[in-house]
Design brief:
The complex is a heterodimer of chains A (about 325) and B (about 425). In chain A, a hairpin with a 4-residue loop joins β1 (about 60-65) and β2 (about 70-75). Chain A starts with a helix and ends with a helix. Chain A has helices spanning about 1-10, 30-60, 75-80, 85-90, 95-125, 130-140, 150-155, 155-160, 165-170, 185-210, 215-225, 230-255, 260-265, 275-280, 285-310, 315, and strands at about 60-65, 70-75. Chain A is an all-alpha fold. Chain B has helices at about 10-30, 55-65, 80-85, 100-110, 125-130, 185-190, 215-225, 240-255, 265-275, 285-295, 320-335, 340-345, 355-360, 365-370, 400-405, 415-429, and strands at about 45-50, 70-75, 95-100, 110, 115, 170, 170-180, 180-185, 205-210, 280, 300, 305-315, 350, 380, 385-390, 405-410. The longest helix of chain B is centred in the N-terminal third of the chain and has 17 residues, at about 10-30. Chain B starts with 11 loop residues before the first helix and ends with a helix. In chain B, the strands form four sheets. In chain B, strands 1, 2, 3, 4, 7, 12, 13 and 16 form an eight-stranded mixed sheet that branches. In chain B, strands 9-10-8-11 form a four-stranded mixed sheet. A two-stranded antiparallel sheet of chain B has the order 5-6. Chain B contains 16 helices and 16 strands. Chain B is an alpha/beta fold and about 425 residues long. In chain B, β14 and β15 (about 385-390) form a beta hairpin. Helix content of chain B is about 35%, strand content about 15%. The chains are: A mainly alpha (about 325), B alpha/beta (about 425). The interface of A and B includes residues 98, 101, 157, 164 and 283 of A.
């Protein structure tokens, strides 16, 4: 779902919005050509995103029993989700706690991937001079993606476990007496795995923005007496903003919807918004699952709207 | 079968041998489902939807050899199997599912009950299923969705369970077991005899249960009863108050850091136990066997409160008819005829028809697996690897002792919806 949100959030990415090749005289009107160019993408978008989304919203208002959907209007999917939330105030109810936890994990992953991603991209864009090396090193970043997502996660277990490499190493060197329990099946391991999985999604868009920065601007800043830090804050970061925002949208949408990584690395003990949907689907409570999907979608959409307020991606591109 | 006459030159037997060999080759190369389609007049294919429990390459190979029916496995988790029956009833022919799922599946009208009269061994099916007692006459605990409560339908197209025996059987039983906790005796170093040990603070941060709500809550209920906090009228059909109480006990334990992790599939449970992350947890018998075959001590520990049992069996999709339905009967009859039963018995499960399975097992194997006697010779797994050295005794003893010790069955409760929500809260706590 998260990728689809992204598509929706950045319609400017869809090719052929009508600026190119207007000069050539033709009998077809330019706006018709634009529609023709955008058409296939629009159809795909309609068939695989908008229509299913409409169904999800409709189903979220249906009733259900143990084994079927009852196509009658009902708010049960939503009311069940928020059951007891008002009575429990000021304490947070499950769904509230789950979202707070999901947002917290999301924020941590976002901040760390942004930090790492920014400097990796910076290194690739400004320190690596040769195009070949830039290309080669970018490809190097994709190596982790050559194995499956699940394997990359599971690989952490023998490393971080109670009797894992890290713990046995630390115990042997005498730094600790007892194995560290929080290395695995904790928020730490969840964030670690998510950062490992998704930093690349930050690197690519930021690198893409940075590579387009006119080097003469940096020289100009240098000539005008700016320190390295001033150049970074006043020249590079503002110009890399579109990449930062796009990378952030990637990471946030994926992490908000993730339940597999959080499940595996959190030892199934950390609730996430996506996990609630999964449990509901497994219990054949599709309307309740749909209702939770709608809630998740709205929250993710709000975050992305806020981000695109900060940077107008359409304009920047 | 009539089409056999059309094959020219090649006898049916040699043709099948060739096919089986090919199947074996394909299985060896890992391409079990996608091996080259052998075009012959008598290709009988059944799409078989189920969990991995019954699905062995050896079983499908032997079936092809004996009956000419090619089994195409569609493997899914218990939850996904149910989902698929509800949403895509035409995507499979034979369904292998658990009795507790029937409470959801049968009312949906998506399965076809099988006719008991066409099942050759039906009268030989163990009384565990039909009467709720062991062959030796021990009464079996009936809490939860016990198979005999949901075994018969009122009529051919009925969506209601019959209270007494009819011709129409919801699921022809194939395999079942009595589950308990798995422990690491080498790390615990003292005898464990009660479900309550799962919440013993001694194992803080080293315990685990499974995160499948309908099964996990049963284990939780066994624990709550064992601690003496509460006695349920029916653990498998709790009231809302009972669910609240059960989840409260578990939530308190979770907040106190009792659990290292929860597991959702077979491999996760094996990893947790083998790596020493947990020393006591809910477990399935073959997972214990797997840990043991890795050379790590692991016991499927019998406990004084008894076992939580489960059972599964076969039925067919409502879309199946004509010759395909006949093949389905042929397949089910073959499955109960011994080879598969013996195969499952050797994995530590139990087969539904004991007499035929016995005929396919060596006397020493039968004595070890079913009679609880010390192994006369080394006990080998179906794949030939060594499971136990001579002299070992099976955990939990004989069939009579284990199945006779069953306290409850996996269940779908009337308050299932509420239970699932509460389970989510437990996970989020």
């Amino acid at each position: 779902m998260s990728e689809e949100v992204l598509q929706q959030a950045s319609p400017g990415l869809i090719p052929g919005s009508g600026t190119a090749r207007a000069a050539k005289p033709t009998r077809l009107s330019p706006s018709f050509i634009s529609w023709l160019q955008a058409g296939p993408m629009m159809l795909v978008f309609l068939a695989f995103f908008l229509i299913p989304l409409v169904f999800v919203v409709i189903v979220s208002f249906w009733d259900y029993n143990e084994y079927q959907l009852l196509p009658a209007f009902s708010g049960r999917g939503y009311t069940d989700t928020f059951e007891g939330c008002i009575a429990q105030l000021p304490d947070l109810c499950t769904i509230g706690k789950t979202y707070v936890k999901t947002l917290k994990l999301c924020f941590m992953v976002w901040a760390i991937t942004l930090f790492i991603g920014f400097w990796v991209a910076y290194f690739l864009a400004f320190h690596v001079k040769s195009k070949t090396w830039q290309m080669g090193l970018s490809l190097l970043c994709t190596i982790p993606f050559w194995t499956s997502n699940v394997i990359r996660m599971i690989a952490w277990i023998p490393l971080l476990g109670r009797n894992g490499l890290v713990n046995s190493g630390l115990v042997k060197t005498g730094l600790i007496n007892h194995p560290l329990e929080w290395l695995l099946f904790s928020e730490f391991s969840v964030v670690l795995a998510l950062v490992h999985l998704f930093t690349f999604f930050m690197v690519v868009p930021i690198f893409n923005s940075m590579i387009r920065i006119d080097k003469s601007l940096i020289e100009a800043a240098y000539d005008a007496g700016a320190t390295g830090f001033q150049t970074l804050v006043n020249v590079i970061i503002p110009l890399a903003k579109p990449g930062i925002v796009i990378g952030s949208i990637f990471v946030i949408t994926i992490v908000m919807g993730d339940f597999i990584t959080i499940g595996v690395m959190g030892g199934q003990q950390i609730a996430a918004a996506g996990k609630i949907i999964e449990t509901r689907v497994n219990a054949l409570q599709f309307p309740a699952a749909a209702a939770n999907a709608v809630i998740l979608l709205v929250i993710t959409f709000l975050i992305i709207t806020m981000m695109s307020r900060i940077v107008d991606i359409k304009k920047e591109l | 079968m009539t089409e056999t006459t059309r094959t020219t030159g090649v006898s049916r037997r040699t043709l099948l041998k060739g096919t089986a060999g090919l199947a074996g080759f394909a299985a060896g190369s890992g391409a079990i489902t996608g091996f080259p389609y052998v075009k012959s007049a008598e290709t009988k294919v059944l799409r078989y939807l189920g969990t991995a429990v019954n699905e062995g390459d050896d079983i499908s190979k032997q079936c092809l050899k004996d009956t000419g029916i090619k089994i195409e496995y569609i493997t899914a988790t218990t939850d996904d199997v149910t989902k698929r029956v509800m949403t895509q009833p035409n995507s499979f022919d034979v369904l292998d599912t658990e009795y507790f799922s029937l409470k959801k599946i049968v009312p949906s009208g998506n399965i076809l009950a099988l006719d008991a009269r066409k099942i050759k061994e039906f009268d030989n099916i163990t009384p565990v299923f039909t009467k709720g007692e062991t062959p030796g006459g021990k009464k079996i605990g009936g809490q939860g969705t016990a198979p005999w409560k949901v075994l018969y339908l009122e009529g051919k197209d009925s969506k209601k369970f019959a209270t007494s025996a009819t011709e129409f059987v919801t699921l022809i039983p194939t395999v079942y077991n009595a589950d308990t906790l798995g422990i690491r005796p080498d790390l615990i170093k003292r005898p464990i005899s009660s479900w309550s040990e799962l919440l013993n603070p001694e194992f803080k941060g080293k315990a685990s249960i499974l995160n499948i709500p309908s099964i996990g809550i049963m284990d939780a209920a066994m624990v709550v009863e064992a601690t003496g906090k509460y006695k349920y009228a029916d653990k498998g059909n709790m009231t809302k108050e009972e669910i609240d109480l059960t989840m409260k006990v578990m939530t308190e334990a979770k907040k106190a850091g009792q659990f290292r992790a929860f597991w959702k599939d077979f491999n996760e449970s094996v990893n947790l136990m083998a790596s020493g992350e947990t020393v006591i947890q809910s477990m399935w018998s073959p997972a214990v066997t797997k840990v043991r075959s890795m050379g790590i001590a692991c016991t499927f520990q019998p406990l004084k409160e008894g076992y939580r049992s489960w059972a599964s069996g076969f039925c067919v999709s409502k879309g199946v008819s004509g010759p395909k339905l006949e093949w389905a009967y042929e397949f089910v009859n073959w499955f109960l005829s011994g080879y598969a039963g013996a195969y499952l018995n050797r994995q530590g499960y139990y087969s539904a028809v004991l007499s035929t399975a016995k005929a396919h097992m060596e006397p020493y194997e039968w004595a070890y697996w079913m009679e609880g006697k010390p192994a006369e010779k080394d006990i080998k797994a179906p794949d030939g690897s060594l499971l136990e050295k001579a002299g070992a005794v099976r955990d939990g003893g004989s069939y009579e002792d284990r199945m006779g010790g069953v306290a409850c069955w996996n269940a779908v409760m009337d308050e299932n919806d509420y239970m699932v929500r509460k389970w989510n809260e437990f996970i989020a706590a």
